[in-house]
From TrEMBL:
Pfam families: ABC_tran. It comes from Pseudogulbenkiania ferrooxidans 2002. This is Cell division ATP-binding protein FtsE. SUPFAM superfamilies: P-loop containing nucleoside triphosphate hydrolases (SSF52540). The lineage of its organism: Bacteria, Pseudomonadati, Pseudomonadota, Betaproteobacteria, Neisseriales. Part of the ABC transporter FtsEX involved in cellular division. Important for assembly or stability of the septal ring. Gene3D superfamilies: P-loop containing nucleotide triphosphate hydrolases (3.40.50.300). The keyword Chaperone does not apply.
Length: 245
């Protein structure tokens, strides 16, 4: 579903030099997989994830999602391709002046769906995340876990093939974290959506990922296989992340 081929991303430093946030990296993520990107702060996890929907454009390399090379698309084609890639954020990024239903409807309005189709789809997505009874509430009236469920419903609404979640549970307590991870897993299983989760917590990886790339200084140090919640780590870095869990 996702092929990053020799992607590289550098940022200008204030002194005029370059900082390499993602070194030349190749990574393939299968359709229907839940894949983790794990590493300490500054490792390049968010940058690598944002390359997948071209929120960051790579300096080199190609980004293929669902057989389409996104780096070759026009702005208009890219907007269309991005409807295939939902995103969930650590700070939820909900619109405060819109209700729960209004937030979930938002990407569908942008995509030009009809009013009737939007109403039906919003109801379906709120059902999936268990928030049907909160449709008319505003974000300020919700708990953190409920806000993140709205974020997930919004990501799911346009029927994406991929959902990217950047530290989606990092603002939540452990119990709420588990319920949000369960929600993502449920969506993955029911709809076959490929899910990429950025996290600094090995417990998140252990809980829902089939595989995870361990990142350090913009490089993939190791790709872990998670089998029945067990992780065999070879690299020092992966071991230290396991010990911290
Ligand atoms: N727009 C930018 N301009 C300059 N440097 C950037 C920019 N975005 C990220 N960086 C740098 O690139 C490196 C990787 O950042 P990134 O946000 O991908 O890390 P991360 O692994 O997601 O970290 P965290 O766990 O703290 O979110 C960091 O050193 C960061 O300062
Ligand atoms: Mg980050």
């Amino acid at each position: 579903m996702i092929h990053l081929q020799n992607v590289r991303k550098r940022y200008r430093r204030p002194d005029g030099g370059w900082f390499e946030a993602v070194a030349s990296t190749s990574l393939s993520i299968g359709a229907g997989e839940i894949f983790g990107l794990i590493g300490y702060s500054g490792a390049g996890k968010s940058t690598l994830m944002r390359l997948i929907n071209l929120l960051e454009r790579p300096d080199e390399g190609s980004v293929i999602v669902d057989t389409q090379d996104l780096t070759g698309l026009s702005a208009r084609e890219l907007r269309r391709a991005r409807q295939n890639i939902g995103m969930v954020f650590q700070q939820f990024n909900l619109l405060a002046n819109r209700t729960v239903a209004g937030n979930v409807a938002f990407p569908l309005e942008i995509a030009g769906w009809s009013k009737g189709d939007i109403e039906k789809r919003v109801a379906e997505c709120l059902e999936v995340v268990g928030l049907t009874d909160r449709a008319g509430h505003y974000p300020a009236q919700l708990s953190g876990g409920q806000k993140q469920r709205v974020g997930i419903a919004r990501a799911l609404a346009p029927n994406p093939k991929v959902i990217l979640a950047d530290e989606a549970t990092s603002a939540l307590d452990p119990k709420t974290t588990q319920s949000i991870l369960d929600c993502l897993q449920d969506i993955n299983r029911r709809f076959g959506v490929t899910v990429v989760v950025v996290t600094h917590e090995m417990n998140v990886v252990r809980s829902i990922c089939q595989r995870a790339a361990v990142l350090d200084a913009g490089r993939v140090v190791e790709v872990l296989d998670i089998v029945d919640g067990r992780i065999e780590a070879e690299s020092e870095l992966a071991r230290s992340l396991l010990e911290a869990a």
